[in-house]
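Bench log, entry 3. Co-assembly request; chain sequences pasted below exactly as received.
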Amino acid sequence: MRLERRLWRALGLALLVAVAFLWATPFLWTLVASFRPEGAGSVNMASLAPDTPQTLDNFRNALESGAFGLYYVNTIIVVLGLLAVQCVTVSLAGYAFARLRFPGRDALFYVFLLQLMLVPPALIVPNLRTVVDLGLYDTLPGVMAPYFASAFGTFLMRQTFLALPRDFEEAAAIDGAPWWAIVWYVLLPMAQPGLVAFAIVSVTAHWNEFLWPLMVINDPAKHTLTIGLAAFTRGAEGGKEWGVLAAGTLLVMAPLAVVFVAFQRRFVDSFVFSGVKG
Amino acid sequence: MSLAGTTFEGIESGAAAEARPRRRRRLRGRLFPYALLAPSLLFLGLFTYLPVVRVVVESLYDRPHGTGAVAATFVGLGNYSKVLADPAFRQAALNNLVYALGTLIPTLVLALAFALAVQRSNRLSAVLRTVFFFPSLVPLVAAASLFFFIFLPGVGLLDYYLAKIGINGPNWLGDSDVALWSVIGLTVWKNAGYYMLFYIAGLQNIPRDTIEAALIDGANAWQRLRYVILPALLPTTSFVVVIALINLLTSVDHVIVLTHGGPSNATNLLLYYIFQSAHENFEIGKAAAATLLSVVVLLAISLASMRIMGRGSHHEA
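Structure output for the full assembly:
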């Protein structure tokens, strides 16, 4: 009986590891293929066995033909610029919902809620017209604008502020500190875990975003990484340069992957906390 | 007169001067919460509410490409009947239904299976959790680029290894009977690990006593899953279903990179249809009508879920 159970357990574990291997295969291939010399022939391009000697040629080709350096800069501008604005909007709104009483508070809460249902990607067509009307077409702020307000971030900051004790702010208020000083010097430092959780979700979502920037940006000099990669994929397809394609894809994925490995727990907690990307 | 008046006024204005700032301060205090909400409300108005109004209006007009609003003619529900009669739209709606259900069910099953398998905190579980979660961290475009090679006929990863065990794979993206299922396969791979996180969190919220009680009662593994764990995970499941459905209706990056909706519309999805109508065919009225239809679907999903989740959920969206 006990032997049988142990056997089942071993079998289950073997199956689990096999599935995990299958799950990791696309990434394993990317790693192996991106360091594969071009001469290896396209017949064995799919092989998962690493080659000797390895080469950095694919990365060199990808960087030369893909202008990835520029795409990195544009993506970083979008992601960080957006995050900066969002931190202000969600902190202020979260503070109002958590600490102030005012007529219409519940109704306004529902006004925010709608954004969780009608996520911006569903509204690309009318939003593009709005961006054009605002004169933001073909600009990086145009890519960011629909996300400046974040219902998810507001709710997350509200939850975070609600969980904080009021003693500190009351002490600061008695000392005559203005509201912004209380938020900036007292509340936000304590709310840091909430902000970090929001930052992780926001940065990941917008680093990875594709369809909206594709619609807003026309000028190749303003392309983000994902638009660059999509164009690059078409090019690699034509030239059958699979090693270069793997290298380019790795370049796009690498920064988030590195940050993830470094802050794994934080990432996982943030995503569980979030539910909705935004 | 003027002197007396001045004095009199002076006295009064002295009192008023004290009262006015107080009143102003009170007014400012009353407006203060709204001022804090104003930046968010401004952008919500511009990019969540205005677009809905816009699509309602635009869907009622026919506006040829390249002309201003002046040239628009009112067509009533004409755009809706045009969209609903469009075989491409019908195909996209049907595809989206198949895609949503075909992705949702295996994704949920795998997410739960992964969660059950890696919930314990040991080294192996931690590594496996990372492996399963990792695909949800990469851009959908990057996943599509990788699967472009994986699905490549003949020399691609899938065909290469299938050939080693003697299987001749179909043309994964070129065969109109297979292509949508290839896209579904990619999406399951991409999303299962993300929803696994919610199931892990959900499993941790089940009181240990409940499971131990079932153990003492002699319930086997299947019975524990069926009668204890699954019912306890119901709030998690309904939450995951909603965010998964919204995701399946609003991301088409992989379709754009891999198939362009082809072959012969086999992988066309609603949002891709909208994107195509607006961005490639410049049929604003049609795109607006299709957008509004998908907005209605999105709202219906969310409202239905709020009903269900209103009966007690531990997740705050």
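Chain A touches chain B through 92 residues (CB under 8 Å). The mean pLDDT of chain A is 87.
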